[in-house]
Amino acid sequence: MKNISIAIALVIFNFSIAQVAIGKQMVDGNSTVLDFNNVPGNTKGLILPATSGLPTGSLVNGTFVFDVTDNKVKVYENDAWKSLSDAGSSSAIVTNSSAELGKGVVIGASSSTADGVLVLESPDKAMILPQIATPHINVKNPYPGMICYDTTSKTLAIFDGSVWNYWK
Questions:
Q1: 83: left (phi over 0), alpha (psi -120 to 50) or beta
Q2: Span 11-28, pLDDT tens digits
Q3: Domain of life here (predicted)?
Q4: 138/136 Cα distance (integer angstroms)
Q5: Where is mean pLDDT largest: 5-9, 48-52, 161-165?
Q6: How far is the C-alpha of 22 from the C-alpha of 31, rounded, in Å?
Q7: Comparing C-alpha atoms, which of 33, 30, 41, 49 is closest to residue 116?
């Protein structure tokens, strides 16, 4: 029942082109399209899709994946894939063998040419990542492809399946 409620909410958000808050009532600020409940003590991050190889087709800059062929977190930028981590480990990843259905959910616009499970599309709004203080200490069982903002070091933190990688 909970999954149906979430799906219905995402469809409603998709049609209303609204700002979305996850785990709280309202987003922080007017320039946010997706925001997470960043309470002190948070240990939950955003998990990137695990792909076998790199997606092709209508890609847009800012696309993130965890590539299980070389166990690296990658971003699509300036029409090329760039690694954001060293080679990690994909041994903890549970393989999804289900058939892919639909085009995914678009938040922030009525449609998008980007092909993704979750597409944030906005000319003037951004996503606020989940915020975690020292994730390498506080997240006890991180999942490969987990991404968050480290509030202690003020960096982007990405777990590659073996270690945390930090980017300023």
A1: beta
A2: 554 444 567 888 888 888
A3: Bacteria
A4: 6
A5: 161-165
A6: 16
A7: 49
Model-level pTM? 0.76
User: Tokens representing 99?
Assistant: 């058939």
What range does the domain containing 103 cover? 2-167
Separation CA 106–CA 60 (nearest Å): 14
SS3 readout for the chain: CHHHHHHHHHHHHHHHCCCEEECCCCCCCCCEEEEECCCCCCCCCEECCEECCCCCCCCCCCEEEEECCCCEEEEEECCEEEECCCCCCCCCCCCCCCCCCCCCEEECCCCCCCCCCEEECCCCCEECCCEECCHHHHCCCCCCCEEEEECCCCEEEEECCCCEEEEC
Query: Residue 132 and residue 157: Cα distance in Å, rounded?
Result: 9
pLDDT score of 133: 95
What is the total count of domains within the chain? Answer: 1
Q: Give the sign of the dihedral formed by CA 156, CA 147, CA 20, CA 108.
A: positive
> Mean pLDDT lowest for which of 7-16, 30-39, 43-52, 115-124?
7-16
